[in-house]
């Protein structure tokens, strides 16, 4: 029974390994490599048809039956081989020999102890993995608790917001009722009207701003056209007038030159010249005024352009702010949608974590049951080891008893040989006496008595020999 427990223990431990280097899916540095390799070489374990070991697959009852059958056959073969090595007859050449145990029993015991140590190490690794799994489960449970707390906080916040919204709705309704009754309500109505007026004024200002922009644009176009057309036309007309005056002056000079001979017209011509000179000065002054007017117009145009650029920058800033607000609105909507998705994902993850928690608990209970089974099997192996040690001691004791029996049997054989020689001599004496009796009839009684004495002596000797055996 204990041998069967040992076989079950070894087979379960080996089939629980993940890889072995004997197969395609087995690394050479696996902790169960040596065990799987040795059991495969012994023929106890065999791989799958595709050349893999598949250590993660569960062990079926058929596979366990085949492995146990192979293990029992190997053990029976080794026990029979050990029994054959024990002596069965007592010959003269074996009298000085002792019964010896097979040399590989110690090696087998060492292998068993090494396998037990390996199983203990594997048990420690399993305990470490279990501790890691427990730590992970605890961290996941804490995360789940935090998530549930956050969800509860969000729910409370939503409930508070709903209550606040309902309270505000009630207060607004009450305020609207008070508006139509109390003076304060009338003031509030006036304030609301003022607010509406302000809003209308703001809308009007916006419209005026738009109109101003359009006006500025049209003014810019008109100024650009006026700067080129009107100023040029006025200047050209004034220049043409100046040229005309210059021509008139030239004509006057020519007439003066023609009339130099007439002394009577000198004074009139001089007065005309002075008048023309004053006109030229006036023309020069008007030209300077025109240039000043042109510079003033250019300055006004530049100031209007700067104002237009300022208006444009203000409008652009407002447009940018509007675009930014729209983007913020869209981003907030996206964030709200993402938050809803994340909340749904958290709910799904919480459900999955609960399932994983239950599965981990089931796995932990299964591992604990397996560990208890392994501990029982280790105890059975220890008891089997103690029994093997007792058997070894009994064999050594029996070998000493066998040696003593051999010595005693040799002494008994020697004594029997001596007694047989004595019986042969007595038999010869009896034969001589019988022959003498045949010749002498008078000694019949003495002969019978001697025969009876010999028979009684042989019987006593036989009883003595039986008592010694």
Automatic annotation (TrEMBL):
Residues 1-20 form the signal peptide. Residues 137-259, 301-440 form a coiled coil. Gene3D superfamilies: 1.10.287.1490, 1.20.5.170. Keywords: Coiled coil, Membrane, Signal, Transmembrane, Transmembrane helix. It comes from the Bacteria. InterPro entries: Cell_Envelope_Struct_Comp (IPR051465), SLH_dom (IPR001119). The chain crosses the membrane at residues 445-465. Pfam families: SLH (PF00395). SUPFAM superfamilies: Bacterial hemolysins. Residues 19-82 form the SLH domain. This is S-layer protein. The lineage of its organism: Bacteria, Thermotogati, Thermotogota, Thermotogae, Thermotogales.
